[in-house]
UniProtKB/TrEMBL annotation:
Signal peptide: none annotated. Keywords: Membrane, Transmembrane, Transmembrane helix. It comes from Acetobacter tropicalis. GO terms for cellular component: plasma membrane. The chain crosses the membrane at residues 6-31, 43-61, 73-91. This is Fosmidomycin resistance protein. PANTHER family: FOSMIDOMYCIN RESISTANCE PROTEIN.
Length: 108
């Protein structure tokens, strides 16, 4: 929706997008910490370092793409990037894993 919005709507959408992204980051870190209990600091440091590094690489790649095409093209490409979030449907359900680990084994 962002590439097709006017100036005032772009400002409002940018604020909304920023809030959504910042709220999701803490949930991602907590999810990763549950996957590696006892390594809370390591996981948090890895995610902060990885996210800043990927942000820098993404900015460089998008800048290069803008140099070869146009800024409007990059703006339209970025409008579809949130669809990558649909891949979270393939993440494992930790509740099912924990209940399977704690369930008593059937007697044979």
């Amino acid at each position: 929706m962002l590439p097709y919005a006017g100036l005032n709507a772009t400002i409002a959408l940018s604020i909304l997008i920023g809030l959504i992204l910042s709220s999701a980051f803490s949930a991602i870190v907590v999810y990763a910490q549950e996957l590696m209990p006892g390594r809370v600091g390591t996981v948090a440091g890895l995610f902060f370092g990885f996210s800043f590094g990927m942000g820098g690489l993404g900015a460089a790649v998008l800048g290069e793409l803008a140099d070869h095409t146009s800024i409007e093209f990059v703006y339209h490409v970025c409008a579809y990037l949130p669809a990558i979030g649909l891949l979270t449907a393939f993440l494992p359900n930790l509740r099912d894993i924990k209940t399977a680990d704690t369930a008593p084994s059937p007697k044979t």
